[in-house]
Amino acid sequence: MTMTRLDPSEPRNAERAFHMNTYPRAPITVVRGEGLRVWDDQGREFLDFTSGLCVNTLGHCHPVVVEAVRAQVGTLIHATNGVYTLPQLELARLLVEHSALDKVFFCNSGAEANECAIKLARKWGRTRKGGAYEIITANTGFHGRTLGTMAATGHRHVQQDFEPLPEGFTQVEFNDLAALRDAITERTAAVLLEPIQGVNGVELATQEYLRGVRALCDEKGVLLMLDEIQSGVGRTGTLWAYEGYGIEPDVMTVAKGLGGGVAIGACLAKDAVAVFQPGDHASTFGGNPLACAAGRAVLQEVIARDLPGHARRLGERLRAGLGEIQAEPGHGITAVRGAGLWFGIEFGEGGANTVWERCLRRGMLLVRSGTGRALRVSPSLTVTEQECDRFLEVFRQAVRS
Ligand SMILES: Cc1ncc(COP(=O)(O)O)c(C=O)c1O
Fold it and tell me: Which UniProt key words apply to this protein (predicted)?
């Protein structure tokens, strides 16, 4: 077999030839990153206000992450989960000590963390709630792309073409407590929600709603499972978004920002819900020393530097700046939502895409929401005041022109 030689400056050709057609991409090839900046293969610099989709918590190639990975990679990269490894147990301890949950299971991605939560809810329902197995989710929520997490995800465009999906999922309107109350039956094992819906354009659960959901779950003896895969690790101005609501979940899933760029996922549960027994669940790579060393370094840094506090302060700066832009004529913005360093900026028809392209041309990366109507702003938690001001300057030009 002969390999076609491709011009490396033509990644679009390489993608067409070798990669499945899954990602709508910006027409740039990123080759290097440092802090809030990335550079493409032409040497052009971009201000990255995506943090790799809420992943690069400390920015690109932060020395703390680089050093942790470097040290671990020369010591022990992987070992079977049939033995103990210290980075895994140390990260589990750190997560437990800094959350309301008691036990951790590690995996490699957000979808896997939610699969673990779904299995945990089913096992809990089977053994503790008379065989209850149904999970109620929000019809505008997003939980991943595996069969189980697609069934949990409300968006039709994610599900269509892949049916039949696993049974046992019911969807209700987000922020509608009465709808949730009506949907709970004796078969319901759990409610699974994002406290803040990322893919849906940073749509926040109201305080009333999430507190009401907690009370309702308690009343009905149903688990409350929060998907904090995007909202966790300081993004919203508290280490976990649930803290901002004054409630505690029974199960929480985490991924994205935990590894600071290294793939990791985790499902955390209260002791009474952590009902797995040996053989119930496993992951070859889950909790490997390399990923856990990265996760341990990220979490320690986030806590030691109070990056959630930094996210609150700089989030306020961004919010104020966005408010000024909204007060000016001709901006096309219909709504700004957010918490901490995480905003969804909604536009009229076609507006989000146009502004996204203009920002890209001006050297700034943003994420478009799954709905296509909003832009998501999610810089690394190490963002500086100057970088926030630069974002506002570029964004102001992009919405005006
Ligand atoms: C809230 C939420 N849950 C789950 C996932 C799936 O995570 P992953 O892509 O790591 O499987 C995502 C990804 O965007 C997410 O935002």
Answer: Amino-acid biosynthesis, Aminotransferase, Arginine biosynthesis, Cytoplasm, Pyridoxal phosphate, Transferase
CATH code of the domain covering residue 84: 3.40.640.10
Domains of the chain: total: 2
- Report which secondary-structure segment, H or E, holds 47: strand 45-48
Which two tokens mark 188? 């319901």
Which of 270, 304, 338 is the endpoint of a domain? Answer: 304
Q: What is the DSSP letter of 60?
A: B
- Exactly one of 105, 106, 129, 256 is catalytic; name it: 256
176 φ, ψ to 5°? -125, 95
What are the pLDDT tens digits along the chain (401 aa)? 445 555 656 888 999 999 999 999 999 999 999 999 999 999 999 999 999 999 999 999 999 999 999 999 999 999 999 999 999 999 999 999 999 999 999 999 999 999 999 999 999 999 999 999 999 999 999 999 999 999 999 888 888 899 999 999 999 999 999 999 999 999 999 999 999 999 999 999 999 999 999 999 999 999 999 999 999 999 999 999 999 999 999 999 999 999 999 999 999 999 999 999 999 999 999 999 999 999 999 999 999 999 999 999 999 999 999 999 999 998 999 999 999 999 999 999 989 999 999 999 999 999 998 778 999 999 999 999 999 999 999 999 999 97
Assigned token pair, 161: 């073409």
The whole domain housing 71 covers: 63-304
Q: How far apart are CA 178 and CA 181, in angstroms?
A: 5
Kindly name the residue from 142, 169, 347, 395 that is annotated as catalytic.
142
> Is 40 labeled as catalytic in the residue annotation?
no
What is the C-alpha separation between 277 and 143, in angstroms, rounded? 25
Structure tokens at 232: 């966790």
Among residues 304, 337, 370, the one where a domain terminates is: 304
Query: Is the C-beta atom of 142 inside 6 A of ligand 1?
Result: yes
Residues 373 and 293 in one domain: no
Residue 87 lies in a domain: yes
Q: Are residues 259 and 298 in the same domain?
A: yes
